[in-house]
Amino acid sequence: MDYNQLSFQLAAVTRHAGQFIRQEAATFNRSHIETKGVHDLVSYVDKETEKLLVAGLREVLPEAGFITEEGTEGANRAEGYNWIIDPLDGTTNFVHGLPVYCVSVGLIHHDELVAGVVYEVVRDECFRAAKGAGAFCNEIPIHVTDVPDLNSSLIATGFPYTDFGKMDDYLQLLGAFMRRSHGVRRVGSAAADLAYVAAGRFEGFFEFNLNSYDVAAGILLVREAGGRVTQFLEDGDPLFGRQVVASNGLVHDEMQSTIREFWKE
Ligand code: IPD
Ligand code: CA
Ligand code: CA
Q1: What is the mean pLDDT of each run of 10 residues along the chain (265 residues)?
Q2: Which CATH superfamily is domain 3-141 in?
Q3: How far apart are CA 28 and CA 6, in angstroms?
Q4: Where does this protein hold Mg(2+) (predicted)?
Q5: H or E stretch covering 257
Q6: Which of 64, 161, 188, 214 is close enough to 81 for a disulfide, judged by CB 3.0 to 4.6 Å?
């Protein structure tokens, strides 16, 4: 399978879905908001975008199954290839009119990531990666930075917003990163955070309670851009591990040792 070629087709489907989101943003209002749980928002835009993606990707790779955030496909995992879809990453930003939200789609073969696209809708930036073929933003190659230490790094994170059980550990950790880096940012889209590490806008990103659809495409982007992605304390695969530390590689050990100081499993 030519994963680079496949990622071009994925990018086209993802851009098309992003155009739908852009069009709906013009008329979206808060009466369209539904809730999935405490502070966990969703809307018809998330669900319709997911349906568009599924329909488009079925044509690209008919034998592939789907792991989707909104479950519009039901349980539909296949043996070999599976698309991992977050139709709208940054829903809270979207419903508040804050212009940072993405379409994020990764492709796995068994458990290995082989293609991924994060399309940032408002900036019209398409981040594309394929296994062994590199990472690109609007077809320009991207690379992580060569900043060597945390002290000179800009770090992204995601704040807990539904599960506050680890709040004390998290706030300690946040304080440590604030003291030890150039600064900490909360963009509101994990897919954008990872794409920005790949593009050299952040040196690192960490967040817990993430799902595979938040991170699938972004993990491959960071790796193909020369960076490293692990779980918080171990080097285990972060895709289904719910915790992610992503970095330019050079500041990874310092990030993990900072986490180790404050994070109790
Ligand atoms: C969320 C965003 C956010 C992160 C959350 C995710 P959603 O995804 O990626 O940045 O902090 O953990 O759930 O709900 O907007 O698709
Ligand atoms: Ca998400
Ligand atoms: Ca989402």
Answers
A1: 97 98 92 79 92 96 96 86 98 95 98 98 98 98 98 96 86 97 98 98 97 98 98 90 96 97 87
A2: Fructose-1,6-Bisphosphatase, subunit A, domain 1 (3.30.540.10)
A3: 33
A4: 69, 86, 88-89, 214
A5: helix 252-262
A6: 64
